[in-house]
Amino acid sequence: MFEEYFEFNVKKFLTDHYEKLNLLPKLETELNVLDGMGGTDYTQPRGGTNISGLDNVVIAREKVHKRIKEIKSDIDICCKALERLNSDELYIIELFHVNPFLTAEKRLIKAEEHGYNKYYMYKIYNVALAKIKKTVFK
Asked: Burial letters for 62-90: b for 16+ Cβ neighbours within 10 Å, e otherwise?
């Protein structure tokens, strides 16, 4: 259906998901700081097209609020897809995407510690990616 019209990169979607999970608390903190700000900067000239300090705060607050809303929406979509995975699939997905700097060698060692050989690990990984893609476009 819709996925036929463009190439959906599931791997990037997952990596972005875990990055967004880390970014969200920072943006919420930034929004709280902006909520505590206010007032007009009287040191700036008034009138004309000049924007007051309060206007700048309101604009910044709206941008951060919009970004938080977009990130939460993306996180919800990805979480729903991850919920459909079984525990093996979820573990393998996390091996690849929670710590993207984990080398292939270390990833394989961790998988073997849990009883997965290289072939089985990649088989599970590909099945999980297909499930996630199917869920996102449902």
From this structure: eebeebbeebeeebeebeebbeebeebbe
CA 39 – CA 70 distance, rounded (Å): 28
Q: What is the pTM of this model?
A: 0.71
Alpha-helical runs (H) found in 37-137: 53-83, 87-97, 104-113, 118-136
pLDDT at 2: 45
What does the pLDDT look like over 63-114, one tens digit per residue?
888 999 999 998 999 999 999 999 999 999 998 888 767 888 888 888 899 8
Cβ 97 vs Cβ 18: under 8 Å: yes
What pLDDT, on a 0 to 100 scale, did the predictor assign at position 1?
43
